[in-house]
Design the sequence.
């Protein structure tokens, strides 16, 4: 990754109502400080939007957001960290991942 890509790294402010506000990581730094230092919720401006800090679930990397979307759609991570589809399961004998409803071709 070169410097330009790093400087354009985006993060996502995830809100309780499901809204996602994406902004450059650099710009989120200030928001992180506000969140860390404020004991009570307050309204803050992000670009053209005003949000209540109480509605912020968290500030996440694109990687984490992708994980959340995959889990929502029923995908899961196997023990090697590889994403598997909803309904897929490991073969009880050899551990190979089998699509939903299929039997293992190696063990049967
Ligand atoms: Zn098997």
Sequence:
């Amino acid at each position: 990754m070169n410097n330009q890509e790093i400087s354009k790294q985006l993060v996502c402010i995830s809100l309780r109502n499901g809204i996602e506000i994406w902004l450059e990581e650099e710009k989120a730094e200030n928001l992180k400080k506000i969140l860390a230092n404020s004991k009570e919720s307050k309204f803050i401006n992000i670009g053209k939007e005003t949000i209540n800090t109480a509605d912020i679930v968290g500030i996440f990397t694109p990687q984490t957001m992708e994980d959340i979307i995959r889990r929502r759609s029923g995908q899961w991570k196997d023990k090697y960290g590889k994403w598997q589809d909803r309904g897929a399961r490991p073969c009880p004998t050899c551990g190979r991942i089998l699509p939903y409803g299929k039997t293992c071709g190696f063990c049967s």
Observations:
- The two ends are 45 Å apart (CA to CA).
